[in-house]
Amino acid sequence: SYELRQPPSVSVSPRQTATITCSGDSLPHRSAYWFQQKPGLAPVLVIYKETERPSGIPERFSGSISGTTVTLTISEVQAEDEADYYCQSTDSSGAYVIFGGGTKLTVL
Amino acid sequence: QVQLVQSGAEVKEPGASVRVSCEASGFNFANYYMVWIRQAPGQGLEWMGIIDPSGYATSYAQKFRGRITMTRDTSTSTVHMDLRILTSGDTAVYYCVRDNGGYGFDFWGQGTLVTVSA
Q: Mean pLDDT, to the nearest integer, of B69-80?
């Protein structure tokens, strides 16, 4: 079955840049999204269509795509950015939604 | 403002069924697909299925087919998710989510904890 692969954890110091990757064979052909989830809360959409940022999301959040990998970049990381991050896309048919396994971002 | 308010926590025995409801406000409910996503304790997000704006078309993840039904009532701006033949593996927080097409899953309910235990 189709999978999206994320690193389980990423650590970064405050004010540094965090990069979280998500790999999947269909990513060049299907839109990708990123969600931030803090403990006990519902996920929040932070990036849509690989690179677009919803209103209200800080500019330090950005997305990119290269081949079969999409990347979430958080510049000037703040303590409040510590959270789980999930990528999401669809399978090759576009019919079924898939989530990556999630990456725990730790701000040291 | 857009709000999705879900029904309260449930405790069910194995083999039982559960209905989780979600009332929408702040947007034209009749224009949007709605999805359900769940999250088991300490685990990742799992898409369960989608219901179209009319309520006549649904699509479910393969693992839930045969024991899940999604319905909606435009008159009350409410969407429901019924899950049958519950097992301990169904213990999770269930989220209703607005599907804004290419703009993504942009609004989420607060989540409903369903606990399946004997």
A: 97
